[in-house]
Amino acid sequence: MGKTPLDLVFNIEPNVFVSLEEYLRTGGYAALAKSLSQGAELSLREIINSDLRGRGGAAFPAGKKIEMVRGNAETTRYIICNADEGEPGTFKDRFIMTHIPFQLLEGITIAAYLSGASQGYIYVRHEYPEAQGILIKAINQAEEEGLLGENIFGSGFSFHLELFSGAGSYLCGEETALLSSIEGKKGRPRLKPPYPTQSGLWNKPTLINNVETLANIPKIIEKGASWYRSLGTEDSSGTKLISLSGDIKKRGLIEVPFGISFAEIINDFGGGPKEGRKIKAVNIGGASGVLVPPELLDTPLEYKACAQAGITIGSGAIFVLDDTRSILDNVQNRLKFFLHESCGKCTPCREGLRQADIILDKLIAGQAGVKDVDTLTRYTGAIQEASFCGLGQAAGNTLRSSLTYYREEYLACCQENRKSAGGEDLALMEETA
Ligand SMILES: Cc1cc2nc3c(=O)[nH]c(=O)nc-3n(C[C@H](O)[C@H](O)[C@H](O)COP(=O)(O)O)c2cc1C
Ligand code: SF4
């Protein structure tokens, strides 16, 4: 989609692949030079004041996380850029890696300098071979130009960066599973605390941030925290990349300032529903996000307002479902994804999801009753509350929101409520057959 008239952080241009030469010509790496000359304290203050929050899902304040690693007494520290991008319907990090790779490399290098890390890894999704190739080339070029490696810009700061190919598992995007994966172990989540900032890669303090989070950093250092804050709202600063898809006229990646409503995103950028169709539901935040009805679409894209409305911004994926879609089919599709990706370590996730899938099968086949919907609701609570890691907890989100807003559709599938095309009670007909 086209460039917006505003001067934003990413200014998406679909067919433009920014080379190192072009990046340097348009002011690239000025932020790294500025950071190195003004010192880490001042630069870190700028990130903290910008109120940049993690864009990988949990929205943790980025400056605070850097501060935690920086403040650790252990001097061997690592930085990891989480580029696993496994959330279904999300394709924003891929754009950054393939189109503006040096903005990402510069952001990682600044964050490494601020946190005191001298070694870093970009953990890139296995299914992104193109992005991997582009990044490997970009890392080599940056090394050749002295923008990575020993004594960067003659500052005495040295930083080495490597690409690590992901293990092809959604769960490896979870930060502690990702650590195990790099360490050569099974990509299973670890107990938190200790958090990676305390004990991360090889038990050393580690800064883990999402691609989009890190790629924001050069612009914040270059233009300042107040400029960044002015792009968004009092509550949520800056901009957000949105992966927009589903039953709308225009799909694609857009960058929007925080504060815009979901309805504006869908109608102004996505062109609204297709001719003659109506929006039935919108899945916000990817497969692990929530399913919301059209009435909630005036909610602004802001962390606080969304939390109050029960919406998870997550990775920023928005998938629109029109009135031809079945809610149960959509929910089951996502549930099967979680079931496939579950590592099986804990019972609520492993067994809860399996049982939920069986109930959904029965509901869709018209062989379930209202008591099955109640059981599904109970299981959902257990999956959400008792799962060991974010995968199971998020799978519960999907189920819960659909059961809250679309309970009628669940009930309509129940034997007690099914009607034939002629209006006869199907349940009664089956009983008497
Ligand atoms: C199952 C699961 C998968 C995740 N996948 C990703 C991912 O692909 N990319 C990502 O940046 N964060 C992912 N996260 C979130 C990370 O654990 C972590 O919070 C994030 O990388 C921190 O970066 P941020 O503070 O910049 O958001 C995932 C979390 C869970 C529970
Ligand atoms: S919640 Fe699911 S993915 Fe996470 S540890 Fe438990 S079984 Fe594994």
What does it look like?
This protein has three domains: 20-231, NADH-ubiquinone oxidoreductase 51kDa subunit (Rossmann fold), CATH 3.40.50.11540; 239-322, Ubiquitin-like (UB roll), CATH 3.10.20; 327-417, de novo design (two linked rop proteins), CATH 1.20.1440. It is α/β, with parallel strands linked by helices. A hairpin with a 5-residue loop joins strand 5 and strand 6 (252-257). It is built from 18 helices and nine strands. The protein starts with 19 loop residues before the first helix and ends with a helix. It has helices at residues 20-25, 30-38, 40-50, 62-70, 92-99, 101-115, 129-144, 175-182, 211-223, 225-231, 262-269, 303-308, 327-341, 347-364, 370-386, 390-405, 407-412, 426-432, and strands at 78-83, 119-124, 160-165, 206-210, 239-246, 252-257, 279-284, 290-292, 317-322. Helix 3 (40-50) packs antiparallel against helix 4 (62-70). It is globular, with a radius of gyration of 23 Å. It has a five-stranded mixed sheet with strand order 6-5-9-7-8, sandwiched between helices. A four-stranded parallel sheet has the order 3-2-1-4, sandwiched between helices. Helix content is 45%, strand content 12%. The structure holds flavin mononucleotide (FMN) and iron/sulfur cluster. Flavin mononucleotide binds next to strand 4 and helix 16.
